[in-house]
């Protein structure tokens, strides 16, 4: 524990700004991953344990597309859309066969998929760490904010995540398709009886949730080292975010993701050996004080 | 004779191993309001679920305007022209009244778009006054009206109403009856399942009586009204 360092950092503008920006991008990546996880759970009622592996796939797809084309835009599209399509195929070919089955069966199927994807990455890219590097379009001097320096790419990431969250929220709450999806979450049989193809809709929702994980992976690729198995820790963290924010609440996921981001960023200075412990302590605290999560609905 | 709007031919329907409907035949002509009468457990709801594709018949078939639809997924049967109002109503409780209608919006099988939000609110003025209210907050009668309106939003050829009077106060039942008569007057083809015979005799044009999963009687309503043998045997409470 190093509280002195934490106090020093908080009282120095440059250190505080740097840590806030770090917390923000950690939080935004978590938000994207968690909102996809939460969307899939909310509508299909299944926990997609492969979600972290989809994040990893997004990063590797982006890495590959960037290496091939040199275009950052292409790398983002490859990560997001590629994983979205993969998720849809995975739902149709695999997950749809274990709907309504024991959760252990779903877990087993997902775990098998995680192993296959991780080993697939090892076969294609080798076991060692890979770096995509900062794309040329972002090779700019960092932006100075209140005496601290923030890489331009961080601001871009925050913008993309906020835009994605806003589009998702508006889509679910304001469009007809969103209304249908919310009805599907509550009463799929009735939705089908109204002439709506629920099978297609399930695949679409799973694909959209996967796309969010892939987008997060693609956004993370320039600033993270890529390794097989990089999905595991983000999956666990996004479960923590879900518990803290409340199941099925996008706003809750956003709030909790930021909370975890800042906990990690400042915890790394104040409690460098206990960062993971801090997250779990926060989760335990929320479970004690408000078991349904910060913005989750009370269980009926 | 023209092709019937809805035809069930020789339907055997099972829940698992137990057979519920036996060689059931049912015909509804365009513009009819057909009452499907019978005691609790006679097979009325199962007939509806078989038509809507929720419990497909193991033998026999369901035809809409001559086209066989049984065996298709429920959403395709709905698109082929069935508007299903289930017994337990099943509004989307956390959606507003208007959003319940918007979810169900679709064109008819020949592209008809007769039923729109505007027309629904004309025919169901009570819903117009509560369009932003959560459907779960409505009374039973209001929810019943909403589910009928919701089914109409899909511009169906045939409206299936499963026990619309069930569990409602007499004055509300009257209002629902009035509404169904209005729809009948507009030319909507209706199949109406009921235990409440008097409610049905007032609003239906024809009746089919089922007992133990089989059709035991069919006639225009006027004829059924005079046939005390049938009403006593199969419908008396």
From TrEMBL, chain A:
Keyword field: Amino-acid transport, Cell membrane, Membrane, Transmembrane, Transmembrane helix, Transport
Gene Ontology biological-process annotations: amino acid transport
Keyword ATP-binding: no
Keyword Transport annotated: yes
Subcellular compartments: Cell membrane
A matching Pfam family: BPD_transp_2
Membrane topology listed for this record: Multi-pass membrane protein
GO CC terms, sorted: plasma membrane
TM helices/strands, residue ranges: 20-47, 59-83, 103-125, 153-172, 200-222, 234-260, 266-289
Gene Ontology molecular-function annotations: transmembrane transporter activity
Chief location bin: membrane
Family, as annotated: Belongs to the binding-protein-dependent transport system permease family. LivHM subfamily.
Name of protein: High-affinity branched-chain amino acid transport system permease protein LivH
Species whose genome carries this gene: Methylobacterium frigidaeris
Gene name linked to the record: livH_23
From TrEMBL, chain B:
GO biological process terms on file: L-amino acid transport
PROSITE patterns documented for this protein: ABC_TRANSPORTER_1, ABC_TRANSPORTER_2
A single GO molecular function term of this UniProt record: branched-chain amino acid transmembrane transporter activity
Entry annotated with the keyword Transport: yes
Ranges for domain ABC transporter: 6-237
Coiled coil: none
CDD domains, per the entry: ABC_TM1139_LivF_branched
Keywords: Amino-acid transport, ATP-binding, Nucleotide-binding, Transport
Keyword presence, Nucleotidyltransferase: no
Family to which this protein belongs: Belongs to the ABC transporter superfamily.
Name of this chain's protein: High-affinity branched-chain amino acid transport ATP-binding protein LivF
Organism: Methylobacterium frigidaeris
